[in-house]
Amino acid sequence: AVSAIGRCAVKLERAAERCIGVLLELIQTKVNYVVQESVIVIKDIFRRYPNRYESIIATLCDNLDTLDEPQAKASMIWIIGEYAERIDNADELLDTFLETFEEEDPAVQLRLLTATVKCFLKNPEDTQDMVQRVLDLATEESDNPDLRDRGFIYWRLLSTDPEAAKLVVLGDKPVMEDDTYKLEPHLLNVLIGQIATLSSIYHKPPEAFVVRARGAVPDLSGAIDEEDEEEEEEEYEDENDVAAAGGAGGGVDLLDMGGMGISEEPKAAAATGGLGDVFGGGDSYEPKAVMTQVCTADKSGGINIMGGFRQVQNTIKLELAFENVGSAVPLSSLAIQLNKNAFGLSPVKQQIVLNPPLAQGSSGSATVDLAVTPAMLAPVPDGQPASPQIQIAIKNLGTGNVFYFAAVFALEAMFGADGALERTAFIEQWKSIEDRKELFGTLSDLPPASVNIEQVIAKFAANHVFFIARRPVPNAEGQEVVYFSMKTVSGMEFLCELTFKAGVNAAELCVKTQNVSYGPLAKAAIESLLRN
User: Fold this and answer.
1) Where are the alpha helices (H) located in 299-450, listed in sequence order?
2) Nearest to 410 by CA among 319, 492, 528
3) Given CA atoms 225, 231, 237, 240 in this order, what sign does their dihedral have?
4) CA torsion angle for 119, 120, 126, 127 (degrees, to 10)?
5) C-alpha span between 506 and 522 (Å, rounded)
6) Is the pTM of this model over 0.90?
7) pLDDT tens track for 467-517
């Protein structure tokens, strides 16, 4: 509890004074362990707010006799050394600790050595014998290498250049900061996936410090042409596809949601061509949507809703699964609407009819075709990444219940069938994109199929990520680079470079695009295709 009070003071400046008052009241109880924990947290408060609450030092000094835990002793010694000029008998207080120097915990010894040197630098006339004594104890009597080394450093500084010693020992210290939310959530998620790599040490993503020849133009002169192969019957599940729920009601005034209606007839969210362009006429491959719970029964009148996005035959679809767990009224008719989003997506039809109706205890599914509608496009602010979230509203026309939620859209569901580039066009486009518009990543622990280049090419083609060329890396045995292009149905183009090494379940990824706000989503799409 005392520690929690201290953390509140460090994190919340407006609460610091009140916390200090509570800690002083606790010290007055004279309860041993309470006093000791209070001293520890007050030391941190002093570090967080220098020269603000030092008036309570006298109270702390009156309780020296109650300190017997190493951490509490070390904290009190730090306070005495740091504010020796404000404590009349600072040398006497430190001297009481020196009497048991050899029996103290190493942390207390180190703190006592530094505090004594501080006291000497602030008041050399009265503390010369004391500093000589502690230096002798640290360098001659101790077998602790840390203590001995620090003692020799202080001895050399004091004997050769006292002014330099003051700069080193009494120099300004950085203010203690609360780092609870120092890392952005996105970066934190990246670092969690990079545990056991240098990223977890540097607190930076791999692309921030991995040396790479940036701006290099891909050498496709030695690239190997790949023959189109027979289509593989392969299920693809995307862990980032999270979708939303459906609705019914043909031309109903959905939810009275001004600004969310479709003011023009949407065009189909598809490009010309199909998977047959790649596999010689086979359109049978259909990536599966990963069904994730997007709305719980307590928020939707007794209906659990699962959802996921996918693309089937060049049409973006929102797959929905409903389970009636608590509604006495059978679920039969729904209406759905999407708010303006970074992709301009909206339902082709707002009505969903479940036939047969879902009585309580039963479940069913529905599919909502989505289209790209310019009127539904939410502009992305300059310099900001596009948000993958799509806000969705659903109305149960049987009960009148309305519920809202946000689903995460995966960009791979939006790649069109016209994204293939000629090699010369690919090279020219690669050259034209500035280095600062490149995104890099290292993908580790990939499944075996995702480091087999032929299988990767086949899977990517089925998802409208088109193979351009492949070539071995010069002077790097077993390494090969593969290039791809993709284009969304809304016209955004992306270039991709993947580097594989034989026998290693990992890949280096580079994505280039002029659409910098959507670059991170394209990079995430490639990662998702490789991991699933």
Assistant:
1) 423-432
2) 528
3) positive
4) 90
5) 19
6) no
7) 999 999 888 888 999 999 999 999 999 999 999 999 888 999 999 999 999
